[in-house]
Specification:
5 strands; about 35% strand
Length: about 70
């Protein structure tokens, strides 16, 4: 698990952006509060968010949800 967290940090993910981090065998889910800087940061990493009651995007086995 520590290896996967280190990998996320190395790829540019700021783990402090998220209040919930869940690691499964085949995917990682990250959930945090939405603000413009987080949205822009993860869009720059290649995430295209779907807007509903929250923003959600999935890429390369990593699911990001940003809540209002």
């Amino acid at each position: 698990m520590n290896e996967q967290l280190f990998k996320l940090q190395k790829l540019g993910y700021d783990l402090n952006d998220f209040y919930a981090i869940t690691i499964y065998v085949d995917k990682i889910t990250l959930q945090g509060h939405l603000d413009k800087s987080k949205k822009d940061k993860y869009k720059a990493l290649g995430y295209d968010f779907i807007c509903d009651d929250y923003l959600q995007s999935f890429k390369d086995g990593i699911d990001i949800t940003l809540t209002y």
